[in-house]
Amino acid sequence: MTGRPPLDMSRRERQIMEILYRHGRATAAEVAAELPDPPTCTTVRGLLRVLEEKGFVHHVEEGPRYVYLPSTPREDTGVSVLSHVVRTFFDGSAAKAMAALLGDGGASTSRAEIDRLAEVVERVRGERERGE
Q: How far apart are CA 118 and CA 114, in angstroms?
């Protein structure tokens, strides 16, 4: 992917990326079929071309069709977006962001998710104490 942040996308481009991440790969017609208030297939192909120029997707040719795939794993893109959100809205503080997510922010967090977060915090704490 290019150096551009994933936030450098229009609403429609984000919707297309959600579809591609969900399916792993799709043609323009398959993407159009899943978009809310779908534009024409020509418009979807144009948006996919723009996403390709920005470095967010790439295509492979399968016969006469182009099949589009995300250029980076969903997790990598998610980390980039989350890092941007933490810097922008939480003064770069992961603790503030976690407090917002776990507090009264409306997100429901299961006991298992809280236990997993606690494990991550303890692992990071141990790494920092060892100077890793």
A: 6
Contacts of 102 (CB under 8 A, 6+ apart): 109, 114, 117
What CATH class does 11-70 carry?
mainly alpha
| Chain position carrying tokens 């503080």 | 93
Please, are residues 31 and 45 in contact by the beta-carbon 8 Å criterion? no
The tens digit of pLDDT for each residue in 49-101 reads 999 999 999 999 999 999 999 998 888 887 877 888 889 899 999 888 888 88
DSSP structure string for 12-36? HHHHHHHHHHHHS-B-HHHHHHHSS
Instruction: Give ranges for CATH 1.10.10.10 in the chain.
Output: 11-70
